[in-house]
Amino acid sequence: MTKNGRHWVVDISIALAIFVADRVVKYAALWWLLPGVSLQVGSFLGIDLLWTLTYNQGAAWGLCGGTPMALLIFRLFFVASLIVIYLKAQMAPLVRTALAVILAGACGNIFDTFIWGHVVDMIHFQFWGWNYPVFNVADIAICLGSGAIFFLTFFSKREQS
What we know:
Elements: H1 3-32, E1 38-44, E2 47-56, H2 68-88, H3 93-116, E3 119-127, E4 130-131, H4 137-160
Antiparallel strand pairs: 1-2, 2-3, 3-4
Helix pairs in contact: 1-3, 2-3, 3-4
């Protein structure tokens, strides 16, 4: 197996692990939590971690919640575009892995929309009494992958200059 072939297998394995973790956490939240009722998990220096089951029909922070079909079509187009980029574009292996992480998160949220008609969110932080929007494992993957691409791209451009 070639080096690129192994990298592809690693990317798929990471993406699959993220997708499965997202599914497991969402099913656990649906099984054990009541919608809108918070369960405090921990607290440190006034920052509280809670589990709060919510249903999000929109995108991040409920944006575009009134247009679920348009949002689903956009998400499907976005994932298809990322798959084409992953398969066709020349990029560093770590950037390709970060793209696979984003794809895993996006597929997790799309899966929710197909199954339940909304995305299941449950991770909730309160910062000194201020509520941060509730999110899920798929959202974490999308943010981490996007941040990784940003930093990998930024630092590789600086090194080449």
